[in-house]
Amino acid sequence: MTLAHEIRRRIADLCSRFDRERFSEPRFLLSAVFLGSLFLSLIASLNQPMVGRDAALYLSISLDPSISDISSAMKRFNWPWYPLWIRFVSGASGLSPEIVARLFCEFMTAFACLLAVDIVRRKRPDLAAWAVLIVLSIPAFNEYRGEILRENGFWCFSLLSLWLMYVMEGARLVSRMAAVCLCVILAAAFRLEAAYLFLVFAMTEFSRIQGKILKIGVIAGGLILAITILFLLSHRGLLSEGRISSFVNYIDPEEIYRSFSVFTQYAALKMPKFSYKDTNLIFFIGLCGYLVVKIISALGVFSLPWALSLRSSGKLRSLLLDPMVVAAIGYGVILLAFLIGRLFLSGRYVSFLGFLLFPGVCVGVQYISRRWPKSSMPIILLCAILALANVVSLSEPKTFIRDASAWIANNLPRKAHVYFEDDRIRHYAGREYPIEVIDREKALAMQGDEAYEYFVLNCRPDSLVEQMHKEGWRLLQDFREGGCVMIFHRDQSVLPEREIAP
Prior knowledge:
This protein is mostly helical and 502 residues long.
């Protein structure tokens, strides 16, 4: 027997064992996915030790000694529950807020991956082994490992509520409703969009219940419960009117249509006269296509298996009984409404849809592996490569942020009025966050007592240095390791008069 033949035999044996029942044991699967997720997050954190802009805001709230209650926290950020929780745990444990936040995020991500795999295992036990590999590979949520985001808690508790809809299917309705509602409320404390899961739960329960009277009773009970919860939260001052009104505007059809019409009327002036009347339709189709592109980008190469899984979709009634399918459709509608009304869509917003489409991806991958048996090993290797690619960065570390922060902390007066274009530098320099966010042009135009003495700018140095020098600014220091940060000093005696842009 030749060496090549022996290698092929062992590879074939490994592929055949991959679908065996012993790999589908819950203890093995759940332990593997949880520990694997934590391991990947550790790699991501080591590769990218800098926090993001959102994280800098959360950590600044948790470190701010002037914040003594919820109302003062809401002046800084209108949905501050996660930063406040970081603050509480940090104070109780003695750990720094950044370490607490990183631990929270990575453990919640690991738990979310575990729940996603268990949902697939309960629906289709034969997909469980593939689910472990795929959940650690899909870019939609894996590319955010190592970052401090509210999305981690949103994923975790949203999936927990969906998981309970499967696990507690045979339990009493009151118990099931109480457990699911609690998880949805916890998810909404991270991102208010999670509130739509109340509707997902109501729709799945409505489709399962037999009898008109019972259905009416469930609807009435659900409405009373939702109104009671909102009333109690509002009475306690735990709801931010700004955040809620903003979310309502996102999904308000009238507001969406008004915002979209204003944009298309302006764009129509630039369109050829032959397409003037079809401007609304052109941009609507374009935005729908853009959403599809964002979803494909979030799934990466797993878009093809998911598309193949649509071939095996069941009847409409069976789909309405599946909470993950209903949640995916509902979240897709929310994303489309947001995109049409706001004309932008961050990849982080689409990430949760990756979890909701995950069962379909597993179905598609199994179909490919059974249709072409020799593809099993390449798929396994591809999943391993993608899992590492999501967390390993080959780009140059952005040390300029920490270097600039350290220089500011050591050289600029503590009471100096400093403008930071990148809030991460503000965070690492130990400076307080402003209540109002001001753009660069407006900050440069300020005069009198409100004028800034120093400017810390992220910039391309070629043209900026000369421009700032002509307007009376002096370059104090610049940092260019992995990027560029420039620190300018304002000289009131030579700075020309400027008008604040309207």
